[in-house]
Amino acid sequence: MDSITQAALGAAVGGAVLGRRLGRKAILIGAALGTLPDLDVVLDYGDAVANYTEHRGFSHSLFVLSGLGTLMALLAARFAPARDIPLRHWWLFFVLCLTTHPLLDALTTYGTQLWWPLDVRPSAWPIVFIIDPLYTLPLLVGIIVALVSGNGRRGPAWGLALSSLYLVFAFGAKSLVEYRLGPALAERGLVEAPRLVQPTPFNTLLWRVTVVDGDDQHEALVSVFDGAATVEFERFSRGAQWEPAALASANGARLDWFAGPYLRYDVELIDDVLTLTATDLRLGFPGFHPFTFTLLEADLDAGQWHPLASEQRDTPPRANGEALALLGQRIFDSNAPLCLGELVDERWHEDVAC
C-alpha cells in the first residue's frame, strides 16, 4: 500500500494498543513504525530486476519484524520512562505496528515476501488496490480525532474497526466475482488455467480478471453489479515463444519466480540488435503496464542471446484520465462493456482480439 496508508495503519494500531497510556506518543511512534519496512526502497541491489524483486523482501519478513519488535519491546520495558507498562503490552505494540504493514501489503497484487529467508514465492491475496481511499480515510479520521482530543485510543480503535470491515467487504466482493467467473471459464476450458482476480484502481466494485493459457492472456472486467450478465473476455498474445530464452537467463528466472506466469515477452529490433523484454502483467492494464525490463540482446546476424544489465523501460504517457473515466462507467453499466483493446498502445493492437 502507499506510504500514507501504512503510516496511518501503524498510527492506528499504536493508538489502539497503548493510546490510553501513552496518548499522542503512541500514535506518532506507531506511524514511524508503520513506515519503517518500506525504507528498503533506498537500497540498490545492482540492477532493475533485482531492485524490483527484492522490494518487500527482508524488511517485510514476519520473522525479521517479529524479532525486531521483540528487541524493541525488551529495550522499552527496560529503559522507557513509563515503567508501569508490562512487557507483553510493549511487545504487542511494537510487533503489531511492524507486522501489520507487510500483512496489508500481502492483500495487494504486487506480493510480499512474508516468509523471507525461506525460498518461497511472494505472498499475495489481492483484495484491495495499492491506493484505496475507502480503506485509508477511516484510519486518518481516527488518528486526527485522537491527536486533536488527546484520547489516543478511541479514535484509532474505531478507525481500525471500520477499515477492517472494508476489507471484509472486499473479500466478499472478490468471492462474488470468482463465483460468477465459473461458467465463463468452464465454457472456454480455462478452469484449471492460472488466473488472477484483483480490484481495479481505487475501488473494490470493479475487478480485473487475468487468465494465462499458454501464449494466450485472457482479460475481463467484472463488476459486483453485473448480475447475470455474461463475462466477456479479450485475448492477447503474451509472446510465449520467447519464454524459454528468457527463463534461461538469471534475471528472467528471477522475474518468473516473482511474477510468473503473469509475464509478457517482446522482442524489439533497433540498429540490427534484438532486445528481449519482459513485462509484469499483474500491474496496470494491457498497454498500461508500468514494469517492463530488458533481459537479453542479440545481434541480428549472430542470433545468439546474451544477458544484459537489466533496465526498466520508461512507460509512455497515456490518457489515464480517460481510462479511469471509462472504468468508472463500467462499474455500474454492464451493458457498456469496456474493451481494453481500445486503450492499448500500438505495440499491443495487433495482438488483441476484442
pLDDT averaged over residues: 91
Task: Give a quick account of the main beta sheet: strands, pairing sense, barrel closure.
Answer: 4 strands, antiparallel
Main structural class: alpha+beta
Low-confidence stretches: none
Give the distance, in angstroms, between the N- and C-terminal Cα atoms. 32 Å
Tell me roughly what share of residues is in helical segments: 40-55%
Q: Which strands sit side by side, in order, in the main sheet? A: 1-2-3-4
Number of strands: 8
Shape annotation: globular
* Rg estimate, integer Å: 23 Å
What is the count of helical runs? Answer: 11
Strand content: 5-15%
**Which sequence of SSEs, written as H and E, runs from N to C?**
HHHHHHHEEEEHHEEEEHH
Protein name: Inner membrane protein
Keywords: Membrane, Transmembrane, Transmembrane helix
Transmembrane segments: 62-80, 87-104, 124-148, 155-173
Pfam family, one: YdjM
Describe the protein's architecture and organization.
The protein has 11 helices and 8 strands. It has 354 residues and is α+β, with helices and mostly antiparallel strands. The protein has a domain of 168 residues. A 4-stranded antiparallel β-sheet has the order 1-2-3-4. A 4-stranded antiparallel β-sheet has the order 5-6-7-8. Strand 5 and strand 6 form a beta hairpin. Helix 1 runs parallel beside helix 6 and helix 6 packs antiparallel against helix 7. The chain is globular and about 75 Å long. The model has no long low-confidence stretch (mean pLDDT 91).
